[in-house]
Amino acid sequence: MEEVDEGRVQISPPGFNVIYLPYADDFRTLDPPRCPSATQTQVDKMKEIISKLRFKYRALQPNFKGFTLKKCITSIGSPGDGSQISGTSEKLDLRLILLGPSGRGRTFIADTLLGNNKTRASMDPLKQSTKWSTVVDSRTITVIDTPDILGPSLGNTSRAREALRSLQLTSPGPHAFLLVIQAPGSGMSLDQDPTQAIQGTLELFGEGVTGYIIPVLTHADILGRRRTVDHVLEADSGELKRALSLCGQRPELVDNRLDLPPEAQTDLCRHFVDRVTEMKELRGHFVHEVHRRQDYLREKLLYDMSSALAEKLGQK
């Protein structure tokens, strides 16, 4: 190191910084600490915990913040009893609105999301929007099944009323709209017009619903070898692509045959949950004018009743 006097005159020049390395015989042999091996029960429990981890990394997603312990705990909950960390239950909940005509696979999608509920499946065709709930991987999944509000079977008054009722049932707002559309070329009676279905959804719920629509193409089992979304889009004449451009969302292709194995239905349910969770993390939930007015009327009612109660108390 260079040394200078008070007048900044060099006393000794800088030299080399030498780091002495040990010789081979200077290395010591250390005994590694002996740790007890995990029991088979502990190994099985850890496998159970890892199997509950469901994270999807998107390299192009700008808001990816990495794998954190908090996110891990939130995902797996408490092992063994299915309980959740306090305060995370509401954040994990998902609210869905199911749209589409009868006989095109909507009932199958509802049953899949609800765990193949035989009671729900045996009911007559819906006359009004109905709320169902179930728990999937420690998440409360709320499904609003609607009548055919996009078709001609209901009058305009009933269509408008049931559309708004479905929104009320998902308060403070749904995270996604699953729009069931018969896959083009499936040969099931007359092909459904996907453009008309998406335009009808926008007409009923407003332009703001665009980013929350997930088109669900059913009857994939009838398409033969074209059993992927890419194959369906490649074979499309352009009508389906024009319809999808209205919502900007990639569709899901679903095999909804009656003899679909339970394991496949479970996988499909979890796939929908993962897809909606991604949308929730990206956009939150859809807010309609009916939700804003509900909040206003609720606060106004609270104010009016509290004022009346305070006046009554003051008279005593």
Task: State the gist of this model.
With 316 residues, the protein is α/β, with parallel strands linked by helices.
* The CATH C-level class name of the largest domain: Alpha Beta
At the third CATH level, what is the topology name of the largest domain? Answer: Rossmann fold
Q: Name the structural class.
A: alpha/beta
| Superfamily (CATH H level) name of the largest domain | P-loop containing nucleotide triphosphate hydrolases
Helix content: 25-40%
Family: Belongs to the TRAFAC class TrmE-Era-EngA-EngB-Septin-like GTPase superfamily. AIG1/Toc34/Toc159-like paraseptin GTPase family. IAN subfamily.
Protein name: AIG1-type G domain-containing protein
Keywords: GTP-binding, Nucleotide-binding
Pfam families: AIG1
Features:
316 residues; alpha/beta; Rossmann fold; 2 domains; 6-stranded mixed sheet; 11 helices; 8 strands; 39% helix; 13% strand
Description of the structure:
With 316 residues, this protein is an alpha/beta fold. It folds into two domains: 88-285, Rossmann fold; 291-316. Helix content is 39%, strand content 13%. The chain contains eleven helices and eight strands. The chain has helices spanning 40-51, 69-76, 89-92, 106-113, 118-121, 156-169, 194-205, 229-235, 239-244, 262-283, 289-314, and strands at residues 3-4, 10-12, 94-99, 130-136, 139-145, 176-182, 213-218, 252-253. The strands form two sheets. A six-stranded mixed sheet has the order 4-5-3-6-7-8, sandwiched between helices. A hairpin with a 2-residue loop joins strand 4 and strand 5. The longest helix is centred in the last third of the chain and has 26 residues, at 289-314. The protein is extended and about 100 Å long. Residues 57-67 and 74-89 have low confidence and may be disordered.
